[in-house]
Amino acid sequence: MAREAIDPDRSGLVESDADKKIYWEYYGTGRREPVCLLNGLAMHTGSWGSVLPSLLDDFDVLLYDYIGQGRSTSADEPVSIPQLADLLVLILDEVGIERLHLLGISYGGFVALDFARRHQHRLHTLTLSGILLSHEELFRMYEAMSLRFYRAGEIGFELYTHYLYEKIFGEAFVHRAAPYLEKMRLAFFKRYQHQVHSLIRFTEAQNRFFAQLDEHMPGFRAIRTPTLILAGGQDRVILPSVQRKIADILPTSRFELVEDSGHVVYLEQSEIFFALVKRFCRAKGVRF
User: Fold this and answer.
1) CA angle at residue 160 from 156 to 161, to 5 degrees?
2) DSSP state of 11
């Protein structure tokens, strides 16, 4: 599964008003439309390395680490999803991007939705995968369980990494990736074992996102950016039927089910996933 690493053409740090340093990478010359890939909770910019070639034939690519991820500031302080969305505006202005295609998977989907709610004039298209935009008790229970693991110390966090990797992947991917799964799990554990506070802060921010969901729902319903929703047919974190509800909220969206995939569709069925994304981005959602 491993591929040779691709170095960014540009990278840097932007500083927010709160004196936070945010790391970004840009792949391409700036002559093509850019796609920004927004990390899941347990990811960082390096997590996209194996799938970058799937996009770079057609688009430039922008990546960035949230506060608490990768090479960005990781102070144990509250963070909010609107804040993470607004930091992307700073990066776009720094890099010189007026509009882009935005793709958010899992936690990145919440950041993408808030970016679209607050800054949709900066978007060509929006792609979401593995998220929800409704109050669901099973997901609330999953979030509460995750927080218990995070707050249980190093042993509790290591147990969580086993629980998470059992839950997020579909059966077909687990069979294909069996030789690599333990290496992936250990990389996740080592990345966060000394900064589990970041995972706690991300989850607290997500809880506030849902606490304000009804208040912000008119803003979500006002999103007119063409939106593609890609759900894994075997997603046990957020059921496909729950993800489908987003299409009833966003007026210019369409829903696609990707069979034989769990929660992490971009990785489990990357060829199908990025073929759909590229087709959607090229068409700006109109002729898809």
Assistant:
1) 125
2) E
Query: Residue 130 has what pLDDT?
Result: 98
| Burial (CB count within 10 angstroms: exposed 0-12, middle 13-18, buried 19+), residue 184 | middle
Q: How many CB atoms lie within 10 A of CB 274?
A: 21
Q: Please, what is the angle between helix 196-211 and helix 178-192, to 10°?
A: 90
pTM: 0.96
Beta strands in 92-208 (DSSP E): 100-105, 123-129
Per-residue pLDDT tens for 235-279? 999 999 999 999 999 999 999 999 999 999 999 999 999 999 999
Question: What is the C-alpha separation between 166 and 100, in angstroms, rounded?
Answer: 34
d(Cα 43, Cα 64) in Å, to the nearest integer?
10
Write out the two tokens for 161: 């990494």
Residue 16 binned pLDDT confidence (cut-offs 50, 70, 90): confident
Q: Provide CATH code, domain 10-283.
A: 3.40.50.1820
Query: Could you report the per-residue pLDDT of 21-61, keeping only the tens digit for each?
Result: 999 999 999 999 999 999 999 899 999 999 999 999 999 99
Return phi, psi of residue 105, to 5°. Answer: -110, 135
- Look up residue 78 and give its amino acid: P
Query: Domain residue spans in the chain?
Result: 10-283
Copy the structure tokens of residue 36: 């920004």
Tokens of 61: 């690519």
Pairing of strands 21-27, 10-15: antiparallel
Question: What does the pLDDT read at residue 44?
Answer: 94
User: Hey, how many other C-beta atoms are within 10 angstroms of the C-beta on 50?
Assistant: 16
